[in-house]
Design brief:
The chain has helices spanning 15-21, 23-44, 48-65, 73-83, 95-104; strands spanning 106-111, 116-121, 129-135, 138-141. It is an alpha+beta fold and 191 residues long.
Length: 191
């Protein structure tokens, strides 16, 4: 059989273009991209000093946001999101709250190869609770107000006694309860 167009089946792709369109070429490009991102992450991981300074500031912002109204965790998440890009006002946190924070809490920072983490240790969390992490030059707080210990008091007198419980006994007397019965519908005979 005779083929008239033998030259049309040749491709004019260069060796580089053929490599980029092959599966092996795409895999090598993907691995190179991941390596570049990992190298950038390694060199932009915050140092222990940067993490400590930023996390102390973020914790002060959490204390500032919860100074009068103790919010729920959603308020803490919103505060943490704003704390990434802002700084605490040093005059808004009361000095006794700041001293109590430093007395009962200890911030520890651990630097890993590609990121750093910050843990808050206190009597509530002796193993530590993660309150932030840093990567790519950013320190991202995850601190919750309930993780911070600000006052310490006795829980019980001794090991053989019950826990202290503060009970509030209302001193207002509402009087006697009226005789409450089920409601039964009675049909009016005149209807």
């Amino acid at each position: 059989m005779y083929q008239a167009d033998r030259g049309n089946y040749r491709t004019n792709e260069s060796m580089g273009k053929a490599f980029m369109h092959s599966c092996l070429g795409k895999l090598i490009i993907f691995v190179a991209f991941i390596l570049v991102v990992l190298i950038i992450a390694y060199f932009t991981t915050p140092t222990e000093k940067e993490m400590t300074v930023d996390m102390e500031d973020n914790i002060m912002q959490c204390l500032e946001a919860n100074d009068s109204i103790k919010g729920d965790p959603i308020d803490d998440y919103v505060t943490n999101l704003g704390a990434i890009f802002s700084e605490a006002d040093s005059t808004k946190v009361a000095e006794e709250v700041r001293q109590a924070y430093h007395m009962y809490n200890r911030l520890e920072v651990y630097r890993h190869a590609l990121y750093a983490t910050a843990y808050l240790r206190n009597n509530l969390h002796p193993e530590g609770v993660r309150v932030g992490f840093g990567a790519f030059g950013l320190v991202i707080p995850t601190v919750l107000y309930k993780d911070i210990l600000l006052d310490v008091g006795p829980i019980h007198k001794g090991y053989d006694q019950k826990l202290y419980r503060q009970t509030i006994v209302p001193d207002n007397d509402l009087g006697k309860t009226p005789n409450i019965q089920e409601y039964h519908y009675k049909r009016n005979p005149d209807d």
